[in-house]
# Entry
Amino acid sequence: MNSFKDVQGDFTVNWRDLKNLMYVDGSAFANSTVSGEVYVGTSDIDHASIASDAFSNCQNITSVVSDAPLFDCASWAFSECENLTSVRLAVSYSYDWGFVLGSGVFYGCKSLETIQIDSWNPSSLLRFGKGSGFRFDGDWDNVDEWERIRLIVPDGSQECYLHDWLFAWLGYDDYDQYYSKTYENLYTETGVEPSRVEVKQAMSEGMLAAENQLRQMMGMELVDHSSFITIDDQDGYVFQTSQGITTLIGVPADAKVIDLDSAIGTKYDSVLLGSDAFTECSQLKQVIVGNKVSAIEPDAFEGCDGVTVTFPNECNTQLLGASTTNPFRFGADIVLDIPEESQVDYLATWPMQCVGILDDFALGDYFFDIWIALRDEYPDGGPTAEQLNLAVSTPFLEQENYLRGLMGLEPIDDISQLEGYIDASGMAGLSEDTQREPVVAALSTLSAHHGSATEALEAAGLISSRGNETGKAVAGHQAPEGDAIVSKPVAEDKQPDAKNNGDSDGAVADDSNDDAAIDSDNSNNNIGSEMIANSDNNSPAPMPANEA
# Structure
């Protein structure tokens, strides 16, 4: 409805008396001489909206105010309002698509000086398309935009706005789309497929420029290096730092033996090994991981068949980015060289990480999800102890055998032989209405209960003592009559039969794949995990299948 469109003669609206006003339709006041403040949305309503062109070319409007908890304003809503000087949005909360600003919302508002947003949760910024960055006033060039407008947000929330708005300001949905388009642009410009390091260097430069634009608008100190991605080339060893996490993303192409502790030096306390970090090293023979590598992303050793990867005595390196449906893989048939006396520790730890379980809380979720699935599958009486143990441990068995193959050890064929075996049989005693939270909390104490889920659940009062189904065969092992199943049944021939008998150069075959999940972010917000979004199928450039 546009009943005030083209109305002339100086007039005002008693906006603040319209306490139930929630929506102003497209072109409702377009080309009119309505003057003064526009106030849409009191604090008593849930959501206020202003449609496209609602106040376009209203030359006498001077300010825009909304006190609505949620607010959205479409592109061109206030276009060509040449005397508009200030905007204040007192948004108190937001959710996906609940607080939205369209690009060009203040197009041609040449007097606009301040935009104040009182929300700690940054709005969603709608763009016109890939590569078209968000602008409040698309009629200005970029310099005008960030030099003329002062963006006022709650003190302390500036970093949130930088993080949430950066990619929209660049013209992309997220990191993946920005990577994909940067790769394509470089390929188009040079006709040569760019390396990952070249793509990330270009991204870092673009992100630095966009970040400083936003910083200037918010009155923040400008920076010399992007706080989102910084690329540091140390004699061919290329490090990417993003949100406090440093990842090794490239090494000298002619390297034959790499000692990572020496390469990392004293500049960084710890680093991740990024996906494809060694992919261009055709002459590589050995990588000595050392103590400064905190984690490894999937496919870190892509293209490194036959390379020996030596790990230290302490198993302090995590395997990241896996799930039960997409287990961790190193990316090539590497040789895992682990001291014989430490092999048990690695085999007790890594199989769970290979399916995405990095801590006891994640393990608790994993156990509970399996219990729920089996409870629904067997509604009459629920799952047995044997069914629970097999369902929980079979994925670990598969991953331990994968690692054993890389370490030159014989495979195992029974879950009772697992180095990281966890007795889950007691979960058969859980009542049907058991909730997730207490189970996860109980299983977070596994280390205090010698890896026995049954003991942890008993200690938390979730099952009665000996509440599991005793006397049942569990994966080929008979539980002693009247006793709970032990947390780790003793099997014959438990000692690993290392082919290289502890030789420090012992060969290990490997094939791995992973995504960095630190941001933890796990995020998705997550710049540390960088899988290319192949959203542009008509791209002239051959897009790589995987990027991290």
Remarks:
- The CA atoms of residues 249 and 277 lie 5 Å apart.
- DSSP finds ten helices and 22 strands in the chain.
- Residues 385-407 form the longest helix (23 residues).
